[in-house]
Design a protein that fits this description.
mainly alpha; Na+/H+ antiporter like fold; 18 helices; transmembrane helix; Na+/solute_symporter_sf; Na+-dependent transporter; transmembrane; membrane
Amino acid sequence: MPPTLRTIFAVPVRGLTWLGDQGTRAVAAVVFIAVAVPPIGAVLRPYVTEAIFCLLCISFMRVDLVALYGHLRRPALVVAATAWTTIGVPMIVGLIAWSTGFDSRSPGLFLALMLQGMASPMMASPALAAMIGLDATLVLVTLVTSTALVPFTASLFASLFLGGSLSITPLTLGLKLLGLLAGSLLAATIIRRVFGTGAIHRHKRPIDGINIIILLVFASAVMGDVASDLVTDPVFTIGVALMAFAVYFTLLAVTTLLFRRVGYERALALGLMVSQRNLGLMLAATAGALPPTTWLYFALTQFPIHLAPYLLTPIARRLMARADASSAAAAGSTS
């Protein structure tokens, strides 16, 4: 690269590297910036699909194929986690809502909960797991298998529980999800071929910075009306926010307990992945044609999604320290 071009690109690369180094702090700050500056949301809302596509590309671009194949050779845990996040979660959500009559009492929130349950885990989940010191490889492999299935499972559960609630047919939803995932995978494959995996690994920190900027684009687009909703109807908005936090941490806790036999560190990694649902993928697939209450719930879920990694970091560090102490004790007893 000519010296002039190198100088031009040096400043933005340093800025992106600094941003990527902020890790979970930057991820947490995203939601507060999105709420504090509503005009950004108004400008960026038309670009939700593009932001999700870029996030998908970055995640597929960074897939460690060696680690992926290694986990797939021992598939029992991956199969169990995939079945839980793609079938177990939406089935339980749908049955609870149906049996309690929640689907008829609050159709907008029911639609939001079902889309949340049907969604695959967020593509940023492996990066977030790595940021807080958890097993990112296990998260990545389960994410790949879950994402591959979601066009089919989402279409199935939309047929079972949503009926005419969606503005598109379940088949169209599945096809749109498949198109988004296939297109982003193709783009990521081309990027890997052109630049090479070595260059991608070397530029991990600035790529993390780009990831955070795209997260800000998505969060701003989704959360642009939160401040006005809070002023207009504070009781309802706070109630929906509490519901978003309750659903998030229930998924986190239940998944962690469900997989505790594989060790709490790995179980917590899976819990983080399952609770981080890719609502943006559903927004992109439905082209944002959703009721206002569904939009509000999606917006407020960004708070636990972005704050939880920061809050969970101390817990993850304690689990890692306990695991290291156990390994050292075991090694000492055998020597």
